[in-house]
Each structure stands twice: as structure tokens, then as C-alpha cells.
Amino acid sequence: MEDWNDIPEELLFLVLANVLGKDRYSFSLVCESWNRVVKASPYHPSPCLMTFNRKSNHVSKYFQHNCFFRMNFPTLLKDATVRFSNDGWLLMMSPDDRTLFFFDPFNNQTIELPPIPSHRTMYNTICFFHPPTSPDCLIVGILSSTHHEVEVGVLKYGEDRWDVVLLDIDHQFKVSFCPPILHDGKIYFLDVIGNVAWFDMTDGIWSFDIFPRCFTKTRLCRNIKECFLIKPENEETIFGVFLVHDERKVRVFELSERLRWKLVEDLRNRVFYVSKTSSFGYTTDDKSMANKIFFSKFHGDKIVFYSMDTHKYHSFEGDYSSDNSYDFEKLDFATWMIPTLPPQLSRKLTSRELIWCPKVDETTT
Asked: Which residue has the higher pLDDT, 132 or 19?
């Protein structure tokens, strides 16, 4: 074989299925034919589970194929915790529980943020939508102030202070740690017993609604240990993943138009990745990945997944299977990420691009 262009596309597709992050972009630069393969690849980039080791100040990226890598990170990450991840960025909280910042683990760059109001405690769940360099970026924190009051804090790109609103509700609603999702312009989130709520800030007008008794069987509500919301890529359907009965059972539901949970027995060609700091899903042509749910849990040094086919936990290597998760190591502050970068993010951002409030910065310089 005399030229890189001569490698069969079928072989390149298989190689590309195991190429991650920046290497995927580098792959596209080899030659014209390789670039075409990247654009046409039917394989979805492989997510990785990222977790910080506070003592040694590095991050371990555990991939679905059970390979792991270590990266040294800046000292500012010492004792910080991951609160959410999206679009290749981590939203992190400093030890004081008031200072949030964005961190790009692929380029070791940070974006500082205005502090959370001093009279507020840590939000139950916090998330962001759109990349932090986008004018559309929005950070949302949600907290149960009391059983009949929910606090929502919002920080928009370019603003130097949080907007905070207290929402009075008629029903008891204790916000879960489940990351919210954005759907049809509304931000959806869950309480600890699986009830759904949403709020909307369209045109600057705040609206809020809560939907009690989303489950027809109240016994299930009392046994929920963890819950996750997923809106699969390129879909309008909302799914809920619930761990019940001391995490022995995994139940998946689809949210109906009437905002009621409908049991799902089969994910078909979908695969879900869930954690307390990020949850997402997509369709896959890889039959070995379809109809599975990956958690931030390990059996020994192997990531485990739940199969909707067998209704058991498994790992890819060996013949391990279990109908419960009692002996798993759970990483509460680990986060699932898709480590791919579009070409415009393969470079380091300029100092100006790393400013959250560009207009405020201009007036003070």
C-alpha cells in the first residue's frame, strides 16, 4: 500500500470507532479520504466516564472499552467537584460551595463565573445549556427551599449576577439530584419520587408548573433510590431511568404527552449513559451497545452496564452478571462525556473568548 488514501473505507470506519477526542479531529487531517470517512462515519464517538482524584490532582478517563488514561490538571481544580458536563465542558464547584467555573479538560482552559448569592446554599442540581462561549449559554440551579417552595437561580451569558426566583407550590416537592433537561423551550426536572416539574423563561416571563402523581403506582414512588432524565439525541421523547428497591431493579419509563410515566420494556437501538452530573442517550448501529444503560459504577476495575434484554448488570469483559448492584463501587461525582471536539474547538481559546461578561470587562478596562 503506497498511499494513505488507498486504505479501504470499511477498515477506516472500524479504526475511527475507537478514536476519541482530539485524535478524531487529527484523524480527519491525514488526507482527503480520511476526512470523508470522519464526516460519513456511522459510529458515534465513544463516551468516557471522567472522575477526579483530589489527592493526586489528576483525572482518570474510563472508557467503555475499559481503557483508562490520566491527565494532569491545574491546581485550581484541587478539592473542586464536578456539578455538570455538556458540550465538552465541565461545570465545577470550588470548595466554598459558592464559586462556579467552567473547565475544558481537553485544552486545560477555564472560564470564571460570578459567585452564587451569599445567602444561598448549594443547589440540589445545577446544569447549563449550550457551550459557555455561546451567547445562548444558560446556567440553571434548582433548590428545594422548603417542601412547598422551589428556588431557581439563572445566570445568562454576559451577565454578572444571578437572577433568583422563589416558586410557591401547592404540593410537596423535594428536588432530586437528577440533572434537568431542556425540551421545547422548557427546563424539566424531577423530585425524589419521580414527579415532573418544568419552568419557562421565554420572553423574560417566568412560568412554572408541577405535575404530581406522574406514576400510577404509588408503591414505586416510595422505593425510588435514584432517578435520571434523558432526552436522546435528535429525539423529542423524554425518558426516565429509575433505580428502585435498594438499586436492585432498573426501570425505564417514557413521559407521555399528559406527563405520566409509561413503562418501557425495550430501548431498541438506543443506549443511555447516566450519572448525577450528566445523562444522555442516542441511537446506535452497534448491536453490542444497543438496549443498554451505563452507570457511573464499577465491578472491580470494569464499568458495568444494565441490559434491558437480560434485566441484569454485566461488564464487557468476562462472563460477569448480577441482578443487583450491592458490590459495585459508585462514583457520585463522576461524569459521562463525549470527548469529541469540532474543528473550531481544537485550538485554545483566546483570553477574550474566555470572559463570561465581555461587556462588563470592557467597561472596567
From this structure: 132
**For residue 215, which amino acid is it?**
F
* Beta-carbon contacts of residue 276 (< 8 Å; ≥ 6 apart): 177, 178, 179, 226, 296, 332, 333
- What is the distance between the alpha carbons of residues 49 and 184, in angstroms, rounded to a whole number? 28
pTM of the model: 0.84
Please list the alpha-helical segments (H only) found in the chain: 9-16, 21-28, 32-40, 218-222, 358-364
The pLDDT of 69-78, averaged and rounded, is: 68
Q: Which residues of 236-245 are buried (b: 16+ CB within 10 A; e: fewer)?
A: eebbbbbbbe
Residue 239 near residue 229 (C-beta atoms within 8 A): yes
Share of the chain above pLDDT 90, in %: 36
DSSP class per residue in 123-176:
-SEEEEES-TTSTT-EEEEEEEEETTEEEEEEEETT-SS-EEEEEE-SS---B-
Q: What is the pLDDT of residues 247-264, one digit of tens each?
A: 678 999 999 999 999 999
Distance CA 62, CA 124 (A): 26
